[in-house]
Amino acid sequence: MNATPHPRPRSLREPTYVTATTKWLSKAAYAPQDALTLWANGNTAPLLAGRRWDLVRIDFAPATTAITRLKAHSRHIGPYLMGGVEHAMWWPLPLGTGEQLHGVPGVTPYPCGAELLAPPPGAYVGDRIWVLPDGERWRTLTSAEELRHALVPEVVRG
What we know:
Number of helices: 4
Largest sheet: 5 strands, antiparallel
Number of strands: 7
Number of domains: 1
Shape: globular
Radius of gyration: 18 Å
Strand order of the largest sheet: 5-2-4-3-7
Helix content: 10-25%
Distance between the termini: 73 Å
Order of helices and strands: HHEEHEEEEEH
Strand content: 15-25%
C-alpha cells in the first residue's frame, strides 16, 4: 500500500502573510514573530529604533520637500512610514547615522529602544502606511547624509 504524503498542517507552514518585506521589517521588533502575528491580525506592531536601523521623525512639510529634492537629484529613497493625523513621516536610516540629522528643523531623532507603531507593509493601519521603493530596492535604507542634504537647502548637492 502506497502512503501518500500528507500536507503539513497549516499551523506548521509559514503563514501566507509572511513576505520578504514583512520578515525584514519584523526583525526590528523585540519579538519578530509577535510582530508578524499582530500584522496578520490587522494591527500595528512595535518596532524598535536602534535594533536594525536608526529612526527619525520628520514633519510632513519638510519630509515632502526632501522627497522632491531626493528625486530631483536622482538619490535613492528607501522605505519610510507616512502618518496622516500626525502629519509626519518616519525614516529608518542605517545604524549609526541618525545623529547626522540632529538639529535639523522639523526632525526628531528617536533614541535607541524607542518604539514605532507600524502597520504591515501594504496596509493602511493606525493611520499609517509604509511607502516602499519598487523591486528589491526597499532593502536599502535612505542615506542619512543624502536626507540631511535634502532637508537643509544650503547643502543640497547637484
